[in-house]
Amino acid sequence: MKTGWIMTAVVAVAVAATAQVLPPRRSFEIATGPAAGTYFPAGELIARIVSHPPGMARCEKSPLCGPPGVIVSAKSSDGAVANVLAVNTGQIASGLAQANVIADAVAGRGEFKKAGRQTHIRVMADLFTEQVQLVVPRGSPIRSVADLRGKRVSLGSDHSGSDVIAVEILKAYRARPAKIVRETYETSGGLMREGKLDAFFFLGGAPALLIADMVNRGQARLVPIDGKGREKLLAAVKGVAVDAVPAGAYKGAGRIETVSSRTYWIVRDSAPGEAVYDLVRALYHPGNRALLDQNVMDTGRIRIGDAASLAGVPLHPGAARYYREAGLLKPTASSPSPVPPRPRRAIP
Scanning 29, 194, 202, 266, which has its CA 20 to 30 A from the CA of 122? Predict the structure, then answer.
């Protein structure tokens, strides 16, 4: 059964002497990731910002919130691959996924080779960048990805964005671990502390709380992802870019070379255009900037105009309408526009 947009009739409530009627409640879900990852808290905050429950005083200053009566909720999930599949089939209204995973989905390759092309995926917003962080014990002899040969390595949860990109990284560096496990970040950290794991991949914004805690306790450090292996990776995988964990992100650590992928908010093509327009407009409303900045990690980096090109993945028409009005897209009568490029000037 499809659970995307669920309309539930409620009893009309008269407000004082004005006989004003509250709008019906409607639910809209965002599939995120494991509760310990970065997607879940980011999805929770986005949901809180754009929700517009009946009678909520904050939302009276239109268009600070999303469509009247809409209650947005973040749902934990198995990660990016599961989110794309669920959105494409209409099992959930929307979800978060990395650019490289979405690119594979619309092309029907990689994790989506069996399921085939995911043709109903549309982009609502380009949110933030996530760096790949390779974590090893502080005293480990591992100094490069190639050193993972013969080691015990966790790639992240099965079919997660971390899992997908970690597999490609190992291929690019021709590194064959003796043992590969697919565990959550928290479980991977615990296994490393117990001496049962030599390394684990983490995909998320830096600093990540789990990694910061391990670094601060002298239990872990990061390994760079660079050199010729990185060049091979970039040539083979779409949606991945050169990046670095900035100096000072973790205690005592300098700049660490790596790769990253953008995170997108995706929706099914059948989602109502007006509703998608209102949700995107609320996300980028200047009045919500302070709420986004409360999260010093991922949501603090959500900015209007931070839209990298993702070839082959169209915008939802409702989102495209908002970006045109914001000056990020040229007016056009053609069908779904591509993801807008970064503007040359900041949009307030």
Answer: 202
